[in-house]
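Margin note: ligand = NAP.
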Amino acid sequence: MENRRNLFFFYGDDKATLIEKMKPVYDILKENGFTILDHPQHANAIVSVGDDGTFLQAVNKTGFREDCLYAGVSATDDISFYCDFHIDHVDSALQEITKNEIEVRRYPTIQVTVDHDTSFHCLNEFSLRSSVIKTFVLDVYIDDLYFETFRGDGLVVSTPTGSTAYNKSLSGAVVDPLIPCFQVSELASLNNNTYRTLGSPFILSNDRTLTLKLTHNDKDYPVMGMDNEALSIKQVEKAVVRLSDKQIKTVKLKNNSFWEKVQRTFL
Ligand code: NAP
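Resulting structure:
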């Protein structure tokens, strides 16, 4: 019988390149009793090969699985945020992993429900943006409290690991993923005597609910993004965001804490 802990699935944008480039890694894995699957369904380790964008896609396309470990292998010049391994050094890293006890790191995700019937998870962020050249307006509620009315280009709601992505470009804070929370940052809010928003990013705890209610104007459909994928829904009345119970598990390597990644990437 196959060992339930030894089933690997590799996710990459280009299958042929994936097989060719990862051949030495596949060989090491097979020598150590691991099986490489063609489908993620029964895998207990899902490895993305590419960049952060590929990792986000791997997690999304495999359904934010909690019963397996995710790992990112960078196939670009640098190792990026979700990629703890580089394609040129992955064989030595694997040998290390197979010899030692691996430590698991957990990344919080957010759950978004759009108009009661569509629900999905995001690992980086949920973004809601005007799709036209004009501003759009939405009411922001924290739990049952009406908080503010936003007018501008849009809002970005990010997870702690997403805090170093889109959120950071909007001057949001970089948040330690050990803190269970999510952050709201503005895209060009229009502030005047009629419309006023807080004007700075704010962080909500894991037992808060954020509700974004659109003031209705049939012509101005917003664009909604779940990480690097656009949602196909055109019309939306409200989006409700909470921190999800689902967490993404990844392999934690030595000298590769979140803050070491922040330092490596930005400093
Ligand atoms: P992309 O537009 O091709 O690349 C966006 C950049 O963000 C890439 O350099 C990517 O790294 C990096 N990145 C992604 N997730 C990150 C994270 N958690 N921390 C630090 N850097 C991160 O799109 P993509 O590669 O598919 O990534 C999608 C993400 O791009 C979205 O989730 C959003 O966060 C971000 N984004 C940012 C802006 C902005 O800053 N103005 C606008 C739109 C989207 P890699 O090169 O390793 O992929």
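The chain has two domains: 2-101, 109-245.
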